[in-house]
């Protein structure tokens, strides 16, 4: 039994001396008892542990392919890469709404946006909703939130589920003096931090300062209790401002994304709204309504800003090593949504395309999560809460739409349903009127996207043969049966999660409807919409 790290039990002398005189029946009974005792000494299932500590790090706008371990041509993310090699890299991780506040609310509640109803960046979470950290508290965990809350606009008050609280209003700012930025994004604030209800000024680069606060809390925590630490970075939200030590690192690197031309988008049968969005605040022709917008420059600064987030992971991991906590700590890293840098002629997020909806997700726990192999099961942000609660042995959320994949990622004779689909949803915002209400079936080889309230094409993509999603097959006759099958699948996902209504909230925040008069023109109606009589049925 030494292979389990346990001392070999010595056999009592009296039992040794009298073994020959013991009847066969008694010997059999003793053998059964000894076998049962040995079973108790065997290691438990790979997925069980004594209340593991949990660190959950959330990065803003981190697209799935922007890590060294994901095959990126130049970015340096050694600590993310190490997490993937020492634990699991989840290759099919998606958010169900690609926007800051809705995605964060889905992580906390395990619910789709149509249920938690946080559908933009200006409205708060319903106070009756339960966050998964509240369930961890019930299981005896001490909990801390440090970073970007960003639900309810200017709200940064301490929230339920957290014993320790550090947050800032809206988007905050990278530097307290604002240096390094080229434009001020909506909800930028310079009010510093709310630390457990007290206003404290920001002093340095925000990614580093949040990391320092996290390390301080870890060092001062109650060591008799398991902990849950949620580090929610501002980085790498636009406007991207790298730490001074990283600025200019990638000035000579090319943009590793092919930006399609307007003609390419027309040939690919992309909807009118996508082609029109090209000349908008969220398109390459008029990005952020800047006359000289450059996706390449913007992307370089994005990659440079991500380096401090990787440093943060390294510092947190160094603490775990130093304190001997690595073996019983589940470390999770995730992006809250992706980001487009010219994919489909677009920038920003909100859309259902891979660059927008697919995110990095890394999980490491030595001895529990097998090290090295990529995890290819389909998972969503709505699954995070249920998974962490199962890992902790805490009570589950009663109204979650997501499901735990803890046993599956531990390799404990379980797997994620291979036929599973996720619902993607985005609800039109008056602030950014160029993106319509969208529902989609995502996560498999075929992606079906339905736009709502527009006289326009829907979309169907074969991700196996068209990973760039530039060949819309929605009107190709040989795929008609597939479209007819995927539409009921979409409605089934909505109906089974009570998605019968579109959340409607009052207008808040600025509006950005602008187009550039000299850039790409308005897209015409699809050719197949023109006919001189209604077809016979």
**Structural class by sheet pairing and helices:** alpha/beta
Net shape: globular
The gyration radius over C-alpha positions equals: 26 Å
The helix content, as a percent range, equals 25-40%
Mean pLDDT: 90
Family: Belongs to the sulfatase family.
Organism: Roseiconus lacunae
Pfam families: Sulfatase
Domain Sulfatase N-terminal: 52-394
Textual characterization of the structure:
This protein is an alpha/beta fold. The chain has 14 helices and 17 strands. Helix 6 packs parallel to helix 12 and helix 7 packs parallel to helix 10. The chain starts with 12 loop residues before the first helix and ends in a 42-residue tail after the last helix. Mean pLDDT is 90; it is low at 1-46. Residues 52-394 form the Sulfatase N-terminal domain. This is Sulfatase.
Please tag this protein with its features.
537 residues, alpha/beta, nine-stranded mixed sheet, four-stranded antiparallel sheet, globular, Sulfatase, glycoprotein, signal
Helices and strands in order, then pairings?
Layout: H1 13-18, H2 24-41, E1 53-59, H3 78-86, E2 88-89, E3 93-94, H4 100-109, H5 113-116, H6 132-138, E4 142-148, E5 164-168, E6 193-195, E7 198-200, H7 206-220, E8 227-232, H8 262-267, H9 272-277, H10 295-322, E9 329-335, E10 340-341, E11 347-348, H11 354-357, E12 361-364, E13 379-380, H12 384-392, H13 406-409, E14 422-426, E15 437-442, E16 446-452, E17 459-462, H14 480-495
Parallel strand pairs: 1-8, 1-9, 3-13, 4-5, 4-8
Antiparallel strand pairs: 2-12, 5-6, 6-7, 9-12, 10-11, 14-15, 15-16, 16-17
How do you describe this structure in short?
It comes from Roseiconus lacunae. It contains 14 helices and 17 strands.
């Amino acid at each position: 039994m030494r292979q389990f790290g346990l001392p070999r039990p010595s056999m009592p002398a009296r039992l040794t001396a009298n073994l020959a005189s013991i009847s066969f029946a008694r010997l059999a009974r003793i053998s059964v008892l000894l076998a049962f005792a040995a079973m108790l000494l065997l290691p438990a299932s790979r997925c069980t542990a004594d209340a593991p500590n949990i660190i959950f790090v959330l990065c803003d706008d981190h697209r799935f392919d922007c890590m060294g371990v994901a095959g990126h041509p130049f970015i340096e993310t050694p600590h993310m890469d190490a997490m993937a090699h020492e634990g699991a890299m989840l290759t099919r991780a998606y958010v169900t709404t690609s926007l800051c506040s809705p995605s964060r609310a889905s992580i906390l509640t395990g619910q789709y946006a149509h249920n938690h109803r946080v559908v933009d960046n200006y409205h708060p979470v319903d106070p009756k909703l339960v966050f998964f950290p509240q369930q961890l508290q019930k299981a005896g965990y001490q909990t801390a939130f440090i970073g970007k809350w960003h639900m309810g606009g200017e709200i940064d008050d301490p929230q339920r589920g957290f014993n320790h609280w550090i947050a800032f209003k809206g988007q905050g700012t990278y530097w307290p003096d604002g240096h390094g930025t080229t434009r001020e994004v909506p909800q930028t604030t310079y009010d510093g931090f709310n630390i457990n209800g007290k206003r404290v000024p920001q002093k340095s680069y925000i990614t580093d300062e949040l990391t320092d606060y996290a390390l301080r809390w870890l060092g001062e925590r109650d060591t008799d209790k398991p902990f849950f630490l949620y580090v929610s970075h501002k980085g790498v939200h636009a406007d991207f401002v790298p730490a001074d030590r990283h600025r200019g690192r990638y000035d000579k690197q090319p943009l590793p994304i092919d930006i399609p031309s307007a003609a390419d988008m027309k040939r690919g049968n992309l909807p009118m709204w996508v082609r029109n969005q090209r000349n908008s605040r969220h398109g390459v022709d008029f990005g952020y309504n800047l006359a000289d917008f450059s996706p390449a420059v913007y992307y370089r600064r994005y990659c440079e800003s991500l380096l401090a987030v990787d440093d943060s992971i390294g510092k947190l991991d160094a603490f775990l090593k130093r304190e001997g906590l690595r073996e019983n700590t589940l470390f999770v890293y995730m992006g809250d949504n992706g980001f487009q840098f010219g994919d489909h002629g677009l920038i920003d997020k909100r859309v259902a395309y891979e660059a927008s909806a697919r995110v990095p997700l890394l999980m490491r726990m030595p001895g529990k999560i097998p090290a090295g192999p990529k995890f290819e099961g389909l998972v969503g942000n709505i699954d995070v809460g249920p998974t962490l609660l199962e890992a902790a042995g805490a009570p589950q959320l009663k109204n979650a739409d997501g499901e735990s994949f803890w046993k599956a990622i531990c390799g404990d004779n379980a797997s994620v349903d291979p036929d599973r689909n996720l619902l993607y949803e985005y609800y039109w915002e008056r602030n950014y009127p160029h993106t319509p209400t969208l529902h989609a079936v995502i996560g498999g080889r075929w992606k079906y996207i339905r736009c709502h309230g527009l006289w326009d094409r829907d979309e169907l993509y074969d991700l196996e043969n068209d990973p760039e999603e530039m060949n819309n097959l929605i009107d190709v006759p040989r795929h008609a049966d597939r479209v007819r099958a995927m539409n009921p699948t979409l409605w089934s996902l909505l109906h089974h999660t009570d998605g019968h209504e579109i959340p409607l909230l009052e207008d808040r925040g600025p509006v950005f409807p602008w187009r550039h008069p000299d850039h790409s023109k308005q897209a015409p109606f699809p050719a197949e919409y023109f006919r001189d009589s209604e077809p016979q049925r």
